[in-house]
Structure formats: structure tokens, C-alpha cells
Design brief:
213 residues; alpha+beta; Ctag/Cox11 (Pfam 04442); 2 domains; 5-stranded mixed beta sheet
Length: 213
């Protein structure tokens, strides 16, 4: 074994010769890079929420319905049964129910249906509805023109309110051979309690200076 193998030279320190100030600058650069990476990851996490919502609306994934601004140009002879479901989650003291259990609609026909919600408590309460349709693959063809979902509702004690949904089953459904056996869609809403908005902050009037009336 040679002398160089017996006594290998020590490894040079990283950035040899850069000095204490250079090491400090390098550490600051590494810390800044880590901070930027963490900020980017947080931004990506928040950005994933609207991206996921867009994906659900575009594909009908997980029973998410579509949003339309006008009626379709065609009404088909094919008839669907649309059922309506209403639920209240948690401790929200509301009674929530559809005006009718189900209806028959033609594919492409614009329909308006109603739900009724009643605050059964002795105080003002706040709720908000989420929704989905079943079977989930029907979401890509169930389009709503108007809906009360994701809109905060404030009900006074004992107040009863009528809520409406305007929708149609998209005629594109007939072009999807996988949906040939589909004849029933259930539209389901769930009301969740939400916190009331914070009261506006009012600045207190400044106290008068001593000795002035």
C-alpha cells in the first residue's frame, strides 16, 4: 500500500477559500431558496382548490353539475326522471325539503323546481347548501342555469324561505352510448351551518380635550 493510500489528504472544505463572509452569504442564499420553495408549495396548495373545482365542473367528476347561461337549442323525445333530495347537516336547526319528490323531464327541457327551508330555532341562523347528483357520471350532463347552492342564507327565527333551481339535462347525453341505460338522476342538496358575518367595526369617537366643552 502506498503512502498516499495510507494517509489520504483531507477533503477540502466546501467553497474552500471563500472565508467566513462567503459562508454567511451562502447560508443566506440557501435559507432564501428554502423560503421561496415553501411559499411556492403553499401557493400550489391553494391553487389546487380552484383547479380541482374547475376540473369537477368541466368533467362532472364526483357528481358535480355543470353551469349554463342559456337553454339548449334542442329538446329530445327522451324522458328522464329527476328525483330531489334535501338534507341538513350537523346542528343547523332548519327544516329543508323539496317541493316535490320527483318529476319527468325531457332531455333538453328547461325546468324550474323549488325547495323550502325553515328556521325552527328562536335565533337568526346561517346556512349554505352544497350539492351533487347521482349517479356521478350524470354530472357531466346535468346543467344548472340558476341555483341557491354556495350562497349564504340568513334566516330569522321561524322564517320560511322558498328556494329555486333552474336546470336541464344536456342533449349531448344522447351522444354518449355509455349513458343509454340512464333514465333516473337524483339531485341532492345538503345544508351546512356557517358562521354569521362579523359585525362592522366602528371606531370610537375621540374623547374631548380637557377644558373644552
Amino acid at each position: 500500500m502506498s503512502a498516499s493510500q495510507k494517509n489520504p489528504p483531507p477533503n477540502p472544505p466546501p467553497f474552500a477559500g471563500e472565508g467566513r463572509e462567503g459562508v454567511r452569504r451562502r447560508d443566506l442564499a440557501v435559507a432564501a431558496g428554502c423560503g421561496l420553495f415553501a411559499a411556492a408549495m403553499v401557493g400550489a396548495a391553494y391553487g389546487a382548490v380552484p383547479l380541482y373545482n374547475w376540473f369537477c365542473r368541466a368533467t362532472g367528476f364526483n357528481g358535480t353539475t355543470q353551469v349554463a347561461v342559456s337553454a339548449p337549442a334542442t329538446i329530445l323525445d327522451r324522458t328522464m326522471t329527476v328525483r330531489f333530495d334535501a338534507n341538513v347537516a350537523g346542528s343547523l336547526p332548519w327544516r329543508f325539503e323539496p317541493d316535490q319528490a320527483s318529476i319527468k323531464v325531457k332531455v333538453g327541457e328547461v325546468v324550474t323546481v323549488g325547495y323550502t327551508v325553515t328556521n325552527e330555532s328562536s335565533r337568526a341562523t346561517f346556512g349554505e347548501a352544497s350539492y351533487n347528483v347521482t349517479p356521478p357520471n350524470a354530472g357531466a350532463y346535468f346543467s344548472k342555469i340558476n341555483c341557491f347552492c354556495f350562497s349564504e342564507q340568513r334566516l330569522e327565527p321561524g322564517e320560511k324561505r322558498d328556494l329555486t333551481v333552474v336546470f336541464f339535462v344536456d342533449p349531448k347525453l344522447a351522444q354518449d352510448s355509455d349513458q343509454d341505460s340512464l333514465n333516473t338522476i337524483t339531485l341532492s342538496y345538503t345544508m351546512y351551518a356557517v358562521r354569521p358575518p362579523e359585525p362592522p367595526h366602528v371606531e370610537a369617537a375621540p374623547a374631548p380635550a380637557p377644558g373644552r366643552s
